[in-house]
Amino acid sequence: MSISAERKGGNNASQGEVGSLGGVPAFTRQALLAPRILIGERILETLVLLAGLSTVVIIALIFVFLFKEAVFFFKTANPLHLIGQQVYDLWDEKTSFKIIWQTVSNEPKYSLIPLFCGSFLVSLPATLIAAVFGIGSAVYLSEIASSKTREILKPALELLAGIPSVVIGFFVLMVVASLVQHWLGLKFRLNAFVGAIGVALATFPIIATLSEDALRAVPSELRQASYALGATRWQTIIETVLPAAVSGISASIILGFGRALGETMIALMATGNAALVTGNIFSSVRTMTATNASELGEVVEGSEHYAALFLVGAVLFTLTFILNVVAEMILSRMRRNLRM
Amino acid sequence: MDAVLTTSLGSAISNPSKPDLRALVLDILVRVFTLIPLLVLVYIFTKIYRQGAHAVTWEFLTAAPSGGMLEGGIFPCIFGTLMVTLLMILIALPLGICAAIYLVEYGGSGALVGWIKAAVNNLAGVPSIVFGLFGVGFFILFVGRNLDHLLQTGLLFGQPCMLWASATLSVLVLPVIVVSTEEALNAVPQSHRTASLALGATKWQTIQNVVLPQARGGILTGAILAISRGAGETAPILFTGCAYFLPHLPVGNLFGFIPMVNPMKQFMELSYHIFVMATQSIDAEKSLPIQYGTTLVLLALTFMLNFCAIAYRIHFRKQLRQA
Amino acid sequence: MGVFIMTDEEDRAKTESVADSAPVRHKIKTSVPRTFGTESGELVQPVKIQVENLDFYYGLTRALKKASLLIRERSVTALIGPSGCGKSTFLRCLNRMNDDIPGARTDGRVLMDGIDIYGPGINVVALRRLVGMVFQKSNPFPKSIFDNVAYGLKIGGMSDREEVEVRVEESLKKAAIWEEVKDRLDHSALELSGGQQQRICIARALAVHPEIILMDEPASALDPISTAKIEELIHILKQDYTIVIVTHNMQQAARVSDYTGFFLTGEMIEFDRTQTIFEVPSDKRTEDYITGRFG
């Protein structure tokens, strides 16, 4: 079959259709050298790039606008007041150093210490509880449960994660607080402990899910090597799997702590909202988040109080930002190790 | 276990290992740790259902609150919740999908990709009240005020309204959409992209015709989860547009005769309603059934959405596995 | 366009000099088209692709070192060599699929019908329609069989539904799978067996009317019966298309190809008629590989 027969065949219909199909004879300069219409592609490429950049821009904006309002505080107030002030106490009739957050008063006091106490008194126990339960379930789901069980329990876990925090807060406020007061005979119905239970419930899914991911990421060869040496299942889990997953689990705890610290509605509804400096977990407390949520509605824009609230928010944001960065560093180091 | 090391092979195999008490205890413990939170979940749902189900009548769902929030229904709250999450997803979904497309299809391993991923991770960890502060400080006071100044519209944009509440919420759910879209795009096998390019398709034609159709399921799942998240969040909308009681729905007439939602108005919302009622109600006893009823409605709404997302994801994964 | 006509001896001389990687001097014998035939009466096809001293780098790695060879029209050229020798990389240079690798760089020329496809102003999208590719692992899209085969046409802007249907049927017939699927064109392509899926991928590549078909180990993931079918198909297709096939299976290369090129660590060691390569190779390394001393 000679060449010419094929070339003159049916597909020569449109000599003029440059770049289109079916009409372009073999490798004519036209097809290969026809310019591509790239404008559409370029525009779309730019659009998605901008969309990606927007996330970075948003974080930067949050930084800027929080700190912008927060620095106003230092225009009128003494930074040391964030710790405590010399106050003349009407009751005791003497001046003493007080560490309180009392914004509605002749001389508003903006000590952050009570708020820190509140936040940590709620979030540390909450993270502890959530970590114990979370890592335990992660071990169960990843190492022990059959795949059928996993298929039921994992979605259940996701449903738990999907409960709005206001509903958890409502539940704790209405039901749990009374139960706890009944069992433990507490003086304050709403306190840090009750709040911690609620926050733990909200934090548990995060730690459980991320820890489970970390455990599953441990290569099965490691487990098999352990079994081949005669170890039992639990020995393998404790001696081999958990140590291998320790980075991922630590990261999950750090991120869980960040979530606990940032939890607003549960703290607002269940912790009693009393800004006290205390180490007693059964006392009413006020967290940083609850302070912002409850007082922002009553401030005058541009006032010192307003700036103080933004300052609290800035501190919160910085704390969770640092926690996130640390967790990310741990995770990326873990990823790098796995790749090697 | 030390016994195995010292005896001979024969006796090691023939002797049964002694019962491992530690293993038994641990086995029980991990099951307890898994089940307790899930039992709490069940308890929450049943308790709220039992206390609130009788309050959720058709009237409850369609009437407005009255009698100082002690009677009537919660229709404006449902309406407000639906509208604000709709507006939120309209903003967040295109933005999130495009950002994920950039990360997966264009970013490669450049430095920018690292920055964007870090930003998304950080956004996911920001406390919800900080979003609220951002909403006030940036959207209302900066963008809104400047818009008013530019367009000479008085105090239209520079105040709390549905628009800014939705914008704040969309910033909050952006990571959810980016991460689930990223996952969905990564699940498309690279060989399909290669085959498409080898047939003479451009990069965008490949994304449009091969990648996105396959990623549809994951993107939809992410959108549903984002809607569920947005409907349940309270702190971001506390000061950016939500109100406890409004006499009218946030609707208006475009050009005077086309009825539509007015995003420049404030709105009522389910989660906010629960919060205020639970903490500041005039008569706690009397409003209790309404509180439980409203909570039941919100819980049912978010549950249904999450359930749909999970079910859809399982179905979609099965489809891919069959193929 | 000149048609190169060479005698058998000149043919060997030219390819040998090419294998030496000395600068290639073309011996343009004549530009007057003549009927095919040589003094010895053997049919020799004209040159379709001429690769001259092709270097390929990605980042700092040099994957191809001054590879040169000729690919003749309507013939099957096989590229053989041990794993990692660069034969797949070389194949992908022919339709510029390597362009997307970060840090990719090429030196040298690849002339198709006289046009350097790495020259300035080349429309890569058009190139990829004219040079089709079939992959090692069949990768049909999760769409219907019809949509798979019609994909390239849709992308290229063919809007006439009837014309598309004609092309799809034609391509499926050429890929020897029309009878098996003609009643279920709207079914998912993923329902088919591995061998059938590979033939769908071949039909998909044929639909856009390429002139050259590149095949990267097309049958290595298939069972022996499907492999035989693919080889049979290649034999039929070569009447109309120029085929370049990469294979690690030497027997397959011997069965299927007219010309063979042996690659080793990025270099094109020897290129000749298949019979010559397998029976009387010139280079000792070729002989060692063929006889299984390494690889």
How would you describe this structure to a colleague?
The complex is a heterotrimer of chains A (340), B (323) and C (295). Chain A is globular, with a radius of gyration of 30 Å. Chain A has 2 domains: 2-70, no CATH class; 94-339, MetI-like fold, CATH 1.10.3720. The two termini of chain A are 57 Å apart. Chain A is built from 14 helices and 4 strands. Mean pLDDT of chain A is 83; it is low at 1-26. In chain A, 66% of the residues lie in helices and 4% in strands. Chain B has one domain (56-322): Orthogonal Bundle (MetI-like fold). Chain B has a two-stranded antiparallel sheet. Chain B has a two-stranded antiparallel sheet with strand order 3-4. Chain C is α/β, with parallel strands linked by helices. Chain C has helices at 8-19, 87-94, 124-130, 145-156, 161-174, 178-181, 194-206, 224-237, 250-256, 274-279, 284-290; strands at residues 47-58, 61-72, 76-80, 104-112, 115-116, 131-134, 212-216, 242-246, 259-264, 267-273. In chain C, the strands form 2 sheets. A 6-stranded mixed beta sheet of chain C has the order 6-7-8-3-9-10, with helices on both faces. Chain C has a 4-stranded antiparallel beta sheet with strand order 2-1-4-5, sandwiched between helices. In chain C, helix 8 (224-237) links the parallel strand 7 (212-216) and strand 8. At the A-B interface, helix 3, helix 5, helix 6, helix 7 and helix 8 of A face helix 3, helix 5, helix 6, helix 7 and helix 8 of B.
Task: Map the helices and strands.
The complex is a heterotrimer of chains A (340), B (323) and C (295).
Chain A: H1 3-7, H2 29-33, H3 39-70, H4 73-76, E1 85-89, E2 94-98, E3 101-102, E4 109-110, H5 113-144, H6 147-161, H7 165-184, H8 192-216, H9 220-228, H10 233-244, H11 246-262, H12 265-270, H13 288-295, H14 304-339
Antiparallel strand pairs in A: 1-2, 3-4
Chain B: H1 2-6, H2 9-14, H3 21-52, H4 58-62, E1 65-66, E2 71-72, H5 75-106, H6 111-125, H7 128-151, H8 162-186, H9 190-198, H10 203-232, E3 251-254, E4 258-261, H11 270-280, H12 284-322
Antiparallel strand pairs in B: 1-2, 3-4
Helix pairs in contact in B: 3-12, 5-8, 5-10, 6-8, 7-8, 8-10, 9-10, 10-12, 11-12
Chain C: H1 8-19, E1 47-58, E2 61-72, E3 76-80, H2 87-94, E4 104-112, E5 115-116, H3 124-130, E6 131-134, H4 145-156, H5 161-174, H6 178-181, H7 194-206, E7 212-216, H8 224-237, E8 242-246, H9 250-256, E9 259-264, E10 267-273, H10 274-279, H11 284-290
Parallel strand pairs in C: 3-8, 3-9, 6-7, 7-8
Antiparallel strand pairs in C: 1-2, 1-4, 4-5, 9-10
